[in-house]
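Q: Hi! First time doing this. I have a protein sequence and I read that you can turn it into a structure. Is that right? Here it is:
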Amino acid sequence: MRIIIGSMTLLLLLSGCSSKTDDPLKERFEKNKTAYRYLQKTEKAQLYDQNVTKAFLTATYLYLPGKKLSEDKNDEAFIVGVYLEEDPLNRIGKAYLLTLDGEKPKSIQPIAKDSLSLKEIPFVTEWNSYYLVTFPHTSCKNFTLAFESSRYGKREMPFSKAAKYVESPKAL
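A: Yes, that's right. Below is the predicted 3D structure, encoded as structure tokens:
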């Protein structure tokens, strides 16, 4: 009798732990796979003045894995979202500088807020301005995008052509 009651209790517990929402979750993941891939390649930086955010930047690296690093000769491209408290147009210029391992960008092109390229990028907001920022090609697997202000300092964002957890022995 104890065995039957124990078996029934175990069966009841195991059936209660099964997920009934796996299929919708898988469908949602498949639908948003590109957004999740870009989320892994997105970093943010904030510049402060006495604990008040003066500049906020999100950068999404547009690297498509699949090529061998030795064969990849494409420029490094980022979609950058910028909010600057002091500049309502959120312009990156002389007061704010972006560099990739010390190199200045080859080009900075504004992106319209209704652009299709922003549909799959995480953290798109109404108050940011967006730019396609292109840097010269780097053959390094890991590199640093720096966001710098002459008044508020510098923040660095690490990026990698491979998954970060593969390159780093510890969690980031």
